[in-house]
Write a structure and sequence with these properties.
The chain is mostly helical. The chain contains ten helices and no strands. Helix 1 crosses helix 8, helix 4 runs antiparallel to helix 5 and helix 4 packs across helix 9. The longest helix is centred in the middle third of the chain and has 48 residues.
Length: 256
Amino acid sequence: MFRNILKGIQAYSGALALISKLKLWKYFAIPIAISIITATIIGFSAYGLSDNIGRFVARIWIWDWGKETFTAISTFIGAIVIIAIGLILYKHIIMALSAPFMSPVSEKIEAHLTGVESHQHRNTTFKEQLWRGIRINVRNLGKELLITIPILILKFIPVVNIFSTVLLFLVQAYYAGFGNMDYTLERHFKYRESIRFVRQHRGVAIGNGIIFILFLLIPVIGVILVLPMSVTAASLKTVNLLKEQGVLLESEELVT
């Protein structure tokens, strides 16, 4: 698992150079706009809601002594809850809406790595790619929330909340990597086949998602570069995995 996580992370090392080499920046214009708008809306919502959640939770403290301290702690935890849910919503929204624009990026990377311009893969329309992206991300959103809510409850338990933070980060990373890998998988696998493939390579998905989440910690630049870098890195690694499994053939293999 750890080795595969590392492989998912290492794929980012050649991402920026490949984007420039294949002239892929033009494909990211609309997804970057979607990312900035979504991040702005969720960011302002999180800022306003954290205080409200803090005051709501503080009501359970009926004593006067320690009221201010408990309110401050509740506000801090409320902010973490809002940020966590905000990140979940952000990544699934941008990945779902960006699907039709990321598919051509993944396809060009695939052609570059295999030397084959037109593979025998599933031909999908803009509408089908958008629906696939929405379907995958709605499914992942539901599952991620089911896992995340219990983890967030653990954050109210001292000491345990340290481990819950790490677990929360890994869950977020997995589903981010899942979405990025599916831009390549949608051409080769049906819905349920893609889910099985990502489960088999969950370490790679986590590795890709770790850098995705870390990018979002960088003010402004993060929401601009997160999709170009993470999608390119995921495409690089996913194409290589498909080649290893014999799903994709290189030009030399097709000749022979």
